[in-house]
Automatic annotation (TrEMBL):
Residues 567-760 form the Transketolase-like pyrimidine-binding domain. E1 component of the 2-oxoglutarate dehydrogenase (OGDH) complex which catalyzes the decarboxylation of 2-oxoglutarate, the first step in the conversion of 2-oxoglutarate to succinyl-CoA and CO(2). The keyword Manganese does not apply. This is oxoglutarate dehydrogenase (succinyl-transferring). GO terms for molecular function: oxoglutarate dehydrogenase (succinyl-transferring) activity; thiamine pyrophosphate binding. It comes from Fluviicola chungangensis. It holds the Pfam family OxoGdeHyase_C.
Length: 907
């Protein structure tokens, strides 16, 4: 039974209920109420019907209301803003608003037990509450519903109050501030006018991260995965991740990157890094900072995916891996991806044990003031959607920042839930160092110009209290400045800038690809006996359980397909996964409705009819197999695709798949594709083997359920960055999935997967086709005879089957239909060989997509030396028509355009 922890008003009946519970079992009420009832002679109070409630009893609960007022609204009356006056809120926390007055200030109230100070005067109770809730730290937590979390927070805040740091700790904090401040000053002096997106004004971030790592290590964290935008990134890399300043200076010098092969690289404040550091207690901690483009919050799900992969592959304990997200105030309020990621936090497929969210609150976004940047009170109000606690802390009060960080870390380790820290600070300069902020915020920047930075503030504090002498402070500064000068001189001698693959240790044993790697595919067959063995296991449901009749039939048909050697798409796909799992390669799939499959072809998870027990036959292959995991995702493309991309970065020896419900839905994640998936290797030298399944095909289902936007993907293809395929047989799909894992490098794979041919009788394969051979980039027409063919029709995907059916209907034998299964990297030599083989008069590219979509423009541009004629639907603004009859009419016209060459040949 949950304990009752507090009462939000002075309802005597509620208090009486609490007291009756206390009489029966003291442990049934919160400890603060136990103390209250022990000290207050409640039992002697006469509650006869119609009797008056004693005045002192009424006032006790008015004081309790006051206490709860501070707990719920104290954050509105804090001293958390270092450069601006707080907005005014009503009603205030004045005692008159709670039915109390000045005459009560020296009265002793038992309600002091509620905040851990025992019976105390109202004056002392208020003083304690002011210290807890209305100084440099504001806290929002009372909306949390679980009594355990509420009690933990109160004990952490009200009982512990402000900690006292010893002199050694104070000096360590000061050294961190010196490093932070002086690094920025050094860059500003040496590289005048260059963009660095300094952390000046928010210097507290670096000591905060330092404290986070130290505290986390003490509480069992062994690995931190961090993500952040560009502001303060260089400082974080240098002073937290221990990237050598000389390497950053070399990037400021504009030197070329020292990397193998063609590599464009990225600006210095976007790059990632991985390192290890030793804490003051001597523990080694792993640190990864994920690369991030200028799309500020896009890295959020990537960080979650990397952290989850680390948990799954190595640590298997949420205490040991901690994701950390560093946000900007405008971005955390304005970017929808933040909401999507927060909603993932407690889901089985995506949880990573709770994230520490630190918002570097500059109180301005580029040039937009905070009151134009959001409708909510705080930039962090999105956290309340999942009842996540939020701290607001003054960035000038460095010890308050450290306390907040440590409480947040304790909370995360205790409850494995998200927690937000709103670090209120300011931005000393404009958006970048060449920007003039007084154009848009003249008053604010007048204040900022006169405002001392956190290093100066803390030095004065330590000097005043006798913890640091001026000579010691100067010595600390001189030592660090000399270090930077030495690094600067070394950087000037370096010929090239260093490129750091931020997960290089994870990718040991892999290399980057070469163009020659794509001339053919490696062998990926599996012995027929093994295929039959695995096929029987994945197609056999455990006995003694009640299954839905249609499910049983699907599995019976799947088993029959294995036995009769006639495999459909779903069976071949599942068999590909089974062979990988049997070889010790883990497989992870996620997306909307992937467990069953949007088109009910997969059924990787079966639920029993009576109690919905989940059965996964792919996890019943053997005791030595790798793990198969599959998750129906939340209704998100952007965050989920980003998560799986991050997961693939940290799992090169596993198969990671995201499936769109329909192919065109991927465009909800276009930022993730443009900035990470297609460009990540070129920018950051990091590989990904992520597979994206995009159901594609024109079947009269309207503009939003037809096209996976093949043209968009092909437009982004260059430098062997991704692979784009449109497979047409189950066997080729089997080899394709296996090919992802046998190469010594990784590439994202975009698969325009089928809908209609999932169950098309003509689109089946045999076990023999999977037992030997490899993925076929191009499939020649098996029935065509070179001497009789005068028209060569290249096509892709399911359109092949429709063309072949129409040709058979018409009795046409002068056309050969060749399937280009891999569109990028384009198998040019194989296409040229087929063209040479047939020596046809007419060479067509036929597609079901409109002329301005699909692969036609790409094919025409890539193979200019081949005289292709394009056969397409008319160019269109929408991807497809919404009318079934219009679809059929346009398909009929497509056939007419293709088969006019048959009639011409006949004449």
């Amino acid at each position: 039974m949950d304990k009752v922890t507090y009462v939000g008003n002075a309802d005597v009946n509620a208090i009486d209920h609490l007291y009756q519970s206390y009489i029966k079992d003291p442990e049934s009420v919160d400890l603060s109420w136990q103390k209250f009832f022990e000290g207050f002679d409640f039992a002697r109070t006469n509650f006869e019907e119609g009797g008056d409630i004693p005045e002192n009893f009424q006032k006790e609960f008015k004081v309790i209301n006051l206490i709860n007022g501070y707990r719920t609204r104290g954050h509105l009356f804090t001293k958390t803003n270092p450069v601006r006056e707080r907005r005014k809120y009503e009603p205030t926390l004045a005692i008159e608003n709670f039915g109390l007055d000045a005459s009560d200030l020296d009265t002793v109230f038992q309600a002091g037990e509620q905040i851990g100070i025992g019976a105390a005067t109202l004056r002392d109770i208020i003083l304690d509450l002011e210290q807890c809730y209305c100084q440099s730290i504001g806290i929002e937590y009372m909306y949390m519903r679980e009594p355990e979390r509420l009690e933990w927070f109160r004990n952490s805040i009200e009982v512990k109050n402000r900690p006292k740091f010893d002199i050694e700790r104070k000096k360590h904090i000061y050294k961190r501030l010196v490093q932070t401040s002086n690094f920025e000053a050094f860059l500003g002096k040496k590289y005048v006018g260059q963009k660095r997106f300094s952390i000046e004004g928010g210097e507290a971030l670096i000591p905060a991260l330092d404290a986070l790592v130290e505290k986390g290590s003490a509480l069992g964290v062994e690995y931190f995965v961090m993500g952040m935008a560009h502001r303060g990134r260089l400082n974080t890399l240098t002073n937290i991740f221990q990237k050598r300043p000389q390497d950053i200076f070399s990037e400021f010098e504009g030197k070329e990157f020292d990397a193998d092969g063609a590599f464009d690289g990225d600006v210095k404040y976007h790059q990632g890094y991985t390192s290890s550091t030793t804490t003051r207690e001597g523990k080694e901690i792993g640190l990864t900072l994920a690369p991030n483009p200028s799309h500020l919050e896009a890295v959020d799900p990537v960080v979650q995916g990397i952290a989850r992969a680390k948990l799954d592959a190595h640590f298997n304990d949420e205490n040991k891996v901690c994701p950390v997200m560093i946000h900007g105030d405008a971005a955390v309020a304005g970017q929808g991806i933040v909401y999507e990621v927060i909603q993932m936090a407690l889901l089985d497929g995506y949880r990573a044990g709770g994230t520490i969210h630190i918002v570097v609150n500059n109180q301005v976004g580029f040039t937009t003031n905070f009151h134009d940047a959001r409708s909510s009170t705080y930039c962090t109000d999105v956290a309340k959607t999942t009842l996540t606690p939020v701290f607001h802390v003054n960035g000038d009060d460095i010890e308050a920042v450290i306390q907040t960080i440590e409480i947040a870390m304790e909370y995360r380790q205790k409850f494995h839930r998200d927690v937000f820290i709103d670090l209120l600070c300011y931005r000393k300069y404009g958006h970048n160092e060449g920007d003039e902020p007084k154009f848009t915020q003249p008053n604010l920047y007048d204040i900022i110009a006169k405002h001392p930075n956190p290093k100066v503030i803390y030095q004065k504090q330590l000097t005043a209290e006798g913890s640091l002498s001026e000579a010691e402070a100067k010595s600390i500064e001189d030592e660090y400045n000399n270090y930077l000068e030495n690094e600067f001189e070394t950087a000037r001698k370096n010929e090239k800038a260093v490129v750091w693959d931020f997960l290089s240790k994870t990718w040991e044993g892999f290399r980057h690809s070469k163009p020659s790697d794509f001339e053919s595919s490696p062998e990926t067959g599996i012995k027929k006996e093994k295929l039959v063995e695995l096929g029987r296991k994945l197609a056999t449901l455990p006995e003694g359980k009640k299954y839905f009749r249609k499910i049983q039939k699907i599995f019976d048909d799947r088993l029959a397909a294995i036995e009769t050697n006639n495999l459909d798409w779903g069976t071949a796909e599942m068999l590909a996964y089974a062979t990988l799992l049997d070889e010790g390669i883990p497989v992870r799939i996620s997306g909307q409705d992937v467990e069953r499959g949007t088109f009910s072809h997969r059924h990787a998870v079966v639920k029993t009819e009576d109690n919905e027990e989940e059965i996964e036959t792919l996890n019943m292959l053997s005791d030595k197999q790798a793990a198969f995991t599959i998750y129906n995702s939340l209704l998100s493309e952007y965050a989920v695709l980003g998560f799986e991309y991050g997961y693939s970065l940290a799992t090169p020896k596993g198969l990671t798949i995201w499936e769109a419900q329909f192919g065109d839905f991927f465009n909800g994640a276009q930022i993730m594709i443009d900035q990470f998936i297609t460009a990540g290797e070129d920018k950051w030298s990091t590989q990904s083997g992520l597979v994206m399944l995009l159901p594609h095909g024109y079947e009269g289902q309207g503009a939003e359920h037809s096209s996976g936007r093949m043209e968009r993907w092909l437009q982004q293809c260059a430098d062997e960055n991704i692979q784009v395929v449109n497979t047409s047989t189950p066997a080729n799909h089997f080899h394709l999935l296996r090919r992802q894992l046998v190469r010594p490098f990784r590439k994202p794979l975009v698969v325009f997967s089928p809908k209609m041919i999932l169950r098309l009788p003509a689109a089946t394969s045999t076990l023999e086709e999977m037992a030997s051979g490899s993925f076929q980039e191009v499939i020649d027409d098996p029935n065509a005879k070179a001497g009789m063919v005068d028209t060569l029709v290249f096509c892709s995907g399911k359109f092949y089957y429709e063309l072949k059916e129409k040709a058979a209907e018409m009795g046409v034998d002068n056309l050969a239909f060749v399937r280009v299964e891999q569109l990028y990297p384009l198998p040019q030599k194989q296409i040229e060989a087929i063209v040479a083989k047939y020596n046809a008069k007419n060479i067509l590219w036929a597609q079901e997509e409109p002329a301005n979509m699909g692969a036609w423009s790409y094919i025409a541009m890539s193979l200019r030396h081949i005289p292709f004629v394009g056969i397409t639907r008319p160019a269109s603004a929408a991807a497809a028509e919404g009318s079934k009859k219009l679809h059929e009419r346009r398909l009929k016209q497509l056939f007419a355009d293709v088969f006019q060459y048959a009639s011409v040949a006949a004449k």
